Structure to design on (408 residues):
């Protein structure tokens, strides 16, 4: 039996006042996702173990059956793997956003208005040229990624990862001065001092940069600040093949999930036109999944759009992205499997909630539905946060969801 996992990042939510206490999943038209629940088994999954950060890195590790308490060592390390950045054992890697700070010093948005990759590469190149390099005995390196998502690496073994950073998407509207990196023990003080230097120098460089001057002239938000978060050192992980004796593939537009797949030894599939936003190439991802399941035991299809809509606090867009996930990903995958005569367990879930009323990640257990041909359904007739509480799976923890999805 093959396995397809369809993940809508941040898709679950809390009751929304504008929806009379319902959630986006409750009101969205999603007949194909509901079919998976109706013909399968449902329940909740605790994807964020207690005491760990409530973000996508931890949650996606959990979804794929890994113990994040053992494997998680910072989101930046996973993104480095996807970007082809070979980290030395003593490097410290961290995610580096380009974002927009308002005139009053608060974070206006975490994405610089979803700046284009072409524009951001110019900014990252100049940041690296002006601020990277040796800088005495504390060298750093900026690596360009996609849109607002980039990477900063402290190289040469001088830095500890013993410092805390604030994920910018969880602190929109808050003042930057209250969110600066802080050492968690004395070994992290040198790294924090260096980061503060970089922040202030980057504000000057970016504010005067021609790319941002052109964005302002067009009425767009400037990328007038760099912001790092989730630092760590290279993780040690067993591969999917070593753990389960099976092969896998990952389909995603974001470096975090692609990097997780790289460390897990999965095939990383890049779909042209996959953006990580609501305008992503849904049909291309579905087609890539059908092609990949012909040669692999498991395919992991990750869609970021619902998470970004949650961060933007855009209720209408989040509902629309759920409906896109249903009609443009789930439907063609179900139809394609049937047309090809491929027997597969198909599961659908988010990694974590991203409530539209807060715009920040939450750590509540997420709804899951697992449909395996020939396995009796549990009587739940739809997929949402409340309906699945009546399902036969109960509350899944650890690697239980993944093992059930995989059939091992």
């Amino acid at each position: 039996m093959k396995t397809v996992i369809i993940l809508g990042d941040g898709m679950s939510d809390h009751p929304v006042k504008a929806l009379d206490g319902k959630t986006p999943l409750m009101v969205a038209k999603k007949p194909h996702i509901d079919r998976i629940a109706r013909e399968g088994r449902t329940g909740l999954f605790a994807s964020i173990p207690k005491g760990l950060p409530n973000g996508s890195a931890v949650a996606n590790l959990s979804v794929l059956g890994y113990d994040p308490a053992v494997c998680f060592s910072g989101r930046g390390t996973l993104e480095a793997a996807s970007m082809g950045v070979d980290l030395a054992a003593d490097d410290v890697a961290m995610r580096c956003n380009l974002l927009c700070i308002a005139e009053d010093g608060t974070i206006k948005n975490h994405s610089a208005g979803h700046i284009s990759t072409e524009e951001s590469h110019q900014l990252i190149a100049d940041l690296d040229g002006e601020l990277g390099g040796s800088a005495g005995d504390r060298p750093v390196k900026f690596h360009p990624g996609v849109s607002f998502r980039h990477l900063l690496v402290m190289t040469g073994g001088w830095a500890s990862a013993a410092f805390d950073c604030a994920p910018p998407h969880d602190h929109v509207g808050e003042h930057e001065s209250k969110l600066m990196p802080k050492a968690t023990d004395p070994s992290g003080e040198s790294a924090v001092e260096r980061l503060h230097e970089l922040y202030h120098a980057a504000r000057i460089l970016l504010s005067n940069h021609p790319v941002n001057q052109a964005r302002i002239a067009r009425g767009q938000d400037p990328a007038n600040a760099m912001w790092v978060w989730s630092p760590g050192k290279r993780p040690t992980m067993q591969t999917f093949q070593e753990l389960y004796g099976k092969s896998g593939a990952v389909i995603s537009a974001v470096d975090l999930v692609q990097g997780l797949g790289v460390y897990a030894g999965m095939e990383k599939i890049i779909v042209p036109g996959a953006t990580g936003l609501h305008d992503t190439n849904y049909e291309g991802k579905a087609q890539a999944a059908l092609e990949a399941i012909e040669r692999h035991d498991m395919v992991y299809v990750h869609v970021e759009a619902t998470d970004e809509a949650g961060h933007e606090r855009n209720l209408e867009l989040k509902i629309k992205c759920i409906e896109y996930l249903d009609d443009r990903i789930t439907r063609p995958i179900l139809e394609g499997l049937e047309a090809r005569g491929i027997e597969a367990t198909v599961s659908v879930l988010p990694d974590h909630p991203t409530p539209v009323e807060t715009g920040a990640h939450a750590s509540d257990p997420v709804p899951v539905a697992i449909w395996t041909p020939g396995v009796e359904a549990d009587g739940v007739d739809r997929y949402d946060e409340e309906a699945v509480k009546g399902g036969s799976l109960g509350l899944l923890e650890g690697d239980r969801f993944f093992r059930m999805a995989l059939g091992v």
Summary: The two ends are 10 Å apart (CA to CA). Residues 82-232 form one domain. The chain has two domains: 2-71+237-406, 82-232. Residues 27 and 319 are 8 Å apart (CA to CA).
